[in-house]
Design goal:
about 210 residues, alpha+beta, six-stranded antiparallel beta sheet, four-stranded antiparallel beta sheet, 2 helices, about 15% helix
Length: about 210
């Protein structure tokens, strides 16, 4: 009889120990692995983007729009002669105007377009002028002239839109630079019309001019 009670007591003690072990394992929560979503939805172990990181702009990926290259600009649908500017922006007028341009980003997808003469040793050719919408023109067709550069002047700010085939559309506000027979290059609202004038930029070297003091 004594032996039977001792065996029964040992069995009960073992069962109690096992029950405590099972309860302890059930109460212990499993540890989350690194990178597992937390209840809030955040993922641990993954760096978050830095606030205020600069976005990639068209100028950052297109050297011709970086402000560091001189280019000639040619109308794709035109005669193949480069644009030039003296009094007015025109196509291959051979007036001795400036034919080298530096589209320079000023933020917000806007550019000032600086104009230079050929590098022939004449110091005036190294002093830039800039494209500007002619304020004396009458809507709906506006022309572009060359003036002293002032990037804070809204009418010297232009949009340049890459078309994906090595060509660009040039605009100002809601107007686009278009070629009209008999009137040349004008800034015009498209309305329901299709954009019929695009331009090709040809790299002519670094924009490293030293302007006249």
């Amino acid at each position: 009889m004594f032996t039977m009670k001792w065996v029964t007591g040992v069995a009960m003690l073992a069962c109690a120990s096992a029950l405590v072990g099972c309860q302890g394992g059930a109460d212990e929560a499993p540890r989350a692995a690194a990178g597992t979503p937390t209840p809030s939805g955040a993922v641990t172990g993954v760096p978050t983007p830095t606030a205020g990181a600069p976005a990639t702009s068209s100028a950052a990926v297109d050297p011709l729009l970086s402000g560091k290259r001189e280019v000639t600009i040619t109308r794709v649908q035109g005669s193949g002669k480069p644009l030039e500017i003296s009094g007015r922006l025109e196509e291959g007028g051979d007036t001795g105007g400036r034919i080298l341009f530096v589209p320079t980003p000023i933020g917000g997808d806007r550019y000032v377009i600086r104009a230079f003469g050929v590098k022939d040793g004449h110091p005036a050719n190294d002093d830039p002028s800039c494209w500007q919408v002619n304020g004396l023109d009458i809507e709906p067709e506006l022309t572009i002239g060359a003036v002293v550069c002032d990037q804070d002047d809204p009418i010297q700010r232009f949009t340049i839109i890459a078309k994906g085939d090595g060509t660009y559309a040039i605009g100002s506000e809601t107007r686009f630079l278009q070629h009209l027979p008999g009137n040349g290059l004008v800034l015009k609202e498209l309305g329901t019309s299709k954009l019929n004038t695009t331009f090709r930029f040809t790299d002519k070297g670094p924009a490293d001019r030293e302007p006249v003091n």
